[in-house]
Design a protein that fits this description.
The complex is a heterodimer.
Chain A (H helix, E strand, L loop, with lengths): L1 E6 L2 E6 L6 H8 L18 E4 L2 E4 L11 E4 L12 H9 L8 H14 L5 H7 L11 H15 L4
Chain B lengths: L14 H7 L14 E7 L5 E6 L1 H4 L4 E6 L29 E2 L5 E7 L2 H10 L1 E6 L12 E9 L2 H6 L3 E9 L11 E6 L5 E5 L4 H12 L6 E5 L15 H11 L3 E4 L2 H6 L7 E9 L5 E13 L5 H11 L8 E10 L13 H18 L4 H8 L19 H12 L1 H7 L8 E12 L10 E8 L5 E7 L6 H13 L6 E5 L17 H28 L6 E4 L2 E4 L4 E4 H12 L4 E7 L6 E12 L5 E11 L6 H20 L30 E6 L21 H13 L10 H11 L1
Parallel strand pairs in B: 1-12, 10-11, 14-15, 18-19, 25-26
Antiparallel strand pairs in B: 1-5, 2-4, 2-6, 3-5, 7-15, 8-13, 9-10, 9-12, 13-14, 16-24, 17-18, 17-23, 20-21, 21-22, 24-25
The chains are: A alpha+beta, B alpha+beta.
Chain lengths: 157, 740
């Protein structure tokens, strides 16, 4: 099946088995290894990507479902070498430890801010309730999102 | 003393930059030409003879090999042995000859793609001839280890007591739940060494086992520690690495051995489940006279760490309260369940889970405030371990409680919290204390080496065998090196373990030893190299030491008022004296003091559903000195998440036949963002002798006291005596029904 998809701003037209999982397509075919796989069942959120402004678990989406859509992975967040405010905040607030949940975590937060530039603390927590982190206890992750908003980057798009 | 420039600062981790951009390469992201994929086949029955028919599976396109017990070296080992001097009962093979638990590794499938491997595993025909399994401590009879530790005469103390308070409690098997599933990559390097890339805690431990099992000299086995997507002890003992090494050795191809989540839960190790009985004798005045504790430890199907964890659990009990007459009996048993292994806190969480609830019950019997009761009985600064183990050091646990009571508004809350109760919700606060160690001194070899080199361009390499598990260990070492050497921190790089290239280290990243032991080694190396620079400079310039000062990569000649960069001095010294600017130090840890914490929790219990919400949490830690407060807070907050899980939700659920029900994150519940409270942290920084700049451990300590603090809060809210972990909604409803 021919699939048209935009990944990190790049148009891709590819003949591919539509039953392939999106996570495998991104990692194996496009070498976007920032997409992590932690549970393969949509429960840990490590493989989260943004699909048409929504955060989705790419292990639970098939390539056939992304035809005509737009995907952003962690590799696509930087603009002209500038980190996204969320990336900066995660780094500076110390919200990153082992880093394995980080790409998915940041993308869930990014999808939140795309649709709700000034979320409350509860809304932030709800946006990442499907992203498990075993290192941080989430406290600094929530603080990082709040900092990114304070820094005035909550309203892009 | 010079003011500290880097130690004590919120230095940002260098590795977080790539992690935030998805550029970091974990072992599962690595690819090699001609690389094969491999996956273990895990036994489906808890106790059974097995017969494996590979015929059909071998026909799957792309399958290169299927190994079973018949194919592997007949070398028994115990993966727990982490140093050449440590010997434990050896009862496991690369691939086992029988299924001894659901999850036992019985075959390895190797193929050109993951797809081929998965297809072949589905086609593998395995016949099980079942035998009766032994599940859980109540059924267990086969001893794996037994030991008594005693001080004084507890029986006599019991005779003199006004009250003896007895509690029996249990703690569950816990999955480490590092978000990165287990994986490793083996290959031959360009010099013919067997090279294993692994997110590991002790690279030299893998080297020892691979060398032994495959009969290859140690100097031909190279283990390189990769970026670690979380471990918490789970990636401590080598499970996959010797098997991947074997596959590469046999097939002469790179092999990536991977696991999914279910395999990681079933086929690695767990925190040991325990059943602990504690009896505490007190007088009316509130002084603990004696205590007897018997711990039964579920060791699982192989010996692994049965002895070590049972001992570690018991030893902590002599280092928190001032109890002269105490007896600990520890017994570990074999069962047909997942073997035990290191897990953050290593016995301390289990020990404190029950004893700290018992301490609350003693206070309740005496009608005393639990904080006040503890303050009457906790050890003092400079206390000695009554068993003769290493000195406890600068113990500030009382200060943790006093500061914590104030910050938590303990007295007022304890008095009034029940006023918030409604028909449906009960509120409670509770607290608990805990202690943990700082390395292995007193029990096992604890030494390390640092090769510290200043290059001609002024950059610095701290060559040592560190394993950053994700905690930021490298940053801590970088801060200490920059401080001691008096150089800009950006110039300092620290290596991670590579067994053929980094210097010897006895124990890796385990036992809360890295900041306290390895950090002290780095400090000593930094100070020696700085002195060497000064000596060299004085020799070159013909001046006295009194005439020079160092600052941030420069040496100033006070007489001539000239400044020279470290780089200039290195170049000149190497030319003049024909010697590089480096020091190599060997460091043996001289002490093993205790770290402490007091945790305070407020809970809201829904009496209709049994759900517990932790609405406020404060952790106060005695850590000597915070090298990097941002990382310390992160350790504590993450440790609290781990421990709340033990208190409320986490349990590897195994039925009477040994089948595991919690095989994924929908059935094994770690706390997510919405169930976690905002964790407040405080540190007591009173300088620990021998620790670098006074620092001691925090990461494991953080998982010890939160769980009993929460259980104590629940018991206060409901007037129950829950001693079973986790306190699930079902358990709480049962407790409430018992009362009514």
């Amino acid at each position: 099946m021919f699939i048209n998809v935009i990944v990190n701003g790049e148009k891709i037209n590819i003949d591919i088995n539509p039953t392939k999982r999106l996570v495998d397509f991104l990692r194996d075919d496009l070498n976007l290894t920032g997409v992590k796989e932690g549970c393969s069942e949509g429960e840990c959120g490590a493989c989260t990507v943004i699909l048409d402004r929504k955060a989705v678990a790419s292990c639970s989406v098939l390539v056939g479902q992304v035809n005509g859509k737009e995907i952003i992975t962690i590799e696509g967040l930087e603009k002209d070498g500038e980190l996204d405010a969320l990336q900066r905040a995660f780094i500076e607030i110390g919200a990153i430890q082992c880093g394995f949940c980080t790409p998915g975590m940041i993308l869930s937060c990014k999808a939140l801010l795309m649709n709700n530039p000034f979320p409350t603390e509860d809304e932030i927590k709800r946006a990442i309730e499907g992203n498990l982190c075993r290192c941080t206890g989430y406290t600094k992750i929530v603080e990082a999102v709040q900092s990114a908003i304070e820094w005035g980057h909550g309203n892009d798009e | 003393m010079k003011e500290l420039r880097y130690v004590g600062q919120r230095i940002i981790r260098e590795d977080s930059y790539d992690k935030a951009r998805g550029k970091t390469i974990y072992v599962g992201d690595m690819k090699r030409a001609n690389m094969l994929y491999a996956k273990l086949v895990l036994g489906q029955k808890a106790h059974a003879e097995i017969e494996i028919d590979k015929t059909e599976a071998m026909l799957v396109d792309g399958i290169e090999a299927i190994f079973t017990h018949e194919d592997v070296p007949k070398v028994q080992y115990n993966a727990f042995e982490w140093h050449s001097s440590i010997k434990a009962p050896r009862d496991e093979y690369l691939l086992n000859n029988k299924a001894r638990y659901v999850g036992d590794r019985i075959a390895l499938v190797v193929g050109k793609s993951k797809k081929a491997v998965e297809e072949a595993i589905a086609k593998l025909s395995i016949a099980y001839k079942e035998e009766k399994p032994v599940i859980g401590l109540d059924e267990a009879t086969s001893l794996a280890f037994s030991k008594e530790i005693s001080t004084g005469d507890y029986e006599k103390a019991f005779e003199n007591a006004d009250y003896i308070i007895k509690d029996i409690g249990t703690t569950p098997k816990i999955h480490h739940a590092a978000i990165e599933p287990h994986a490793c990559l083996a290959e031959f390097d360009d010099r013919g060494n067997l090279l294993i890339w692994a997110p590991c805690q002790v690279a030299s431990q893998i080297q020892i086992h691979v060398s032994n099992i495959l009969n290859i000299p140690l100097n031909r086995v190279r283990v390189v520690k990769t970026v670690m997507g979380g471990s918490f002890g789970g990636k401590s003992i080598p499970i996959l690495e010797p098997i991947a090494a074997f596959a590469t050795y046999r097939l002469n191809r790179p092999v990536l051995l991977y696991m999914n989540r279910t395999d990681t839960i079933l086929g690695t190790v767990t925190r040991n489940a325990t059943k602990i009985t504690v009896e505490t004798a007190v007088n009316k005045e509130g002084k603990i006279l004696g205590r007897k504790i018997e711990a039964h430890v579920d060791g699982g199907a192989y010996n692994t760490n049965a002895a070590a964890v049972t001992m570690a659990l018991g030893k902590k009990l002599f280092r928190l309260y001032d109890i002269k007459d105490q007896c600990y009996i520890g017994k570990a048993y074999y069962t047909n369940t997942i073997p035990g292994g290191a897990c953050r806190g290593y016995g301390s969480p289990q020990a404190h889970a029950i004893t700290e609830v018992n301490i609350d019950n003693v206070a309740k019997t005496l009608n005393m405030d639990p904080c006040e009761f503890r303050l009457k009985n906790l050890i003092e600064d400079g206390a000695k371990d009554p068993t003769g183990s290493t000195d406890i050091g600068n113990a500030k646990i009382k200060e943790c409680i006093i500061k914590g009571m104030e910050a938590f508004n303990w007295k007022e809350k304890r008095k009034n919290i029940r006023n918030k109760n409604t028909n449906r919700y009960s509120y409670g606060i509770g607290m608990a204390c805990g202690t943990h160690g700082n390395g292995y001194t007193g029990a096992y070899p604890d030494y390390t080496s640092v090769d510290l080199r200043l290059f001609s361009d002024g950059s610095v390499l701290v060559n040592m065998s560190i394993h950053d598990l994700g905690c930021g260990t490298l940053t801590i070492m970088q801060q200490i090196a920059a401080e001691a050497l008096d150089i800009e921190i950006e110039k300092v790089k620290v290596t991670e373990a590579d067994t053929l290239n980094t210097p010897a280290d006895s124990a890796g990243t385990q036992a809360s030893r890295v900041t306290y032991v390895c950090g002290a080694a780095v400090k000593e190396a930094g100070e020696k190299l700085r002195q060497k620079l000064i000596d060299t400079f004085c020799k070159l310039k013909g001046i006295n030491q009194d005439d020079v000062i160092t600052s941030q990569g420069y040496i100033f000649n006070k007489q001539s008022n000239q400044k020279y960069s470290y780089s200039e001095i290195v170049v000149e010294a190497e030319k003049t004296f024909q010697e590089d600017m480096s020091v190599f130090i060997k460091y043996k840890s001289p002490a093993n003091p205790a770290s402490f914490a007091a945790c305070f929790a407020e809970v809201k219990v829904d009496k209709y559903t049994g759900l517990v919400e932790v609405i406020d949490f404060l952790a106060v830690h005695d850590i000597g000195k915070s090298i990097n407060p941002m990382l310390v807070e992160g350790q504590i907050q993450g440790g609290v998440q781990f421990s709340i899980g033990m208190a409320l939700t986490e349990d590897i659920d195994i039925d009477s036949k040994g089948n595991v029900k919690s095989t994924n994150f929908s059935k094994y519940h770690i706390l997510n963002s919405t169930s976690m409270p905002k964790v407040r942290t405080m540190t007591i920084e009173a300088n620990e002798p021998y620790g670098p700049y006074g620092a001691k451990s925090v990461g494991e300590m953080a998982t010890v006291a939160p769980a009993p603090a929460i259980i104590n809060a629940i018991n206060f809210a409901l007037d129950t005596n829950i001693t079973t972990y986790p306190a699930t909604p079902e358990l709480i409803i049962n407790e409430l029904n018992k009362k009514s």
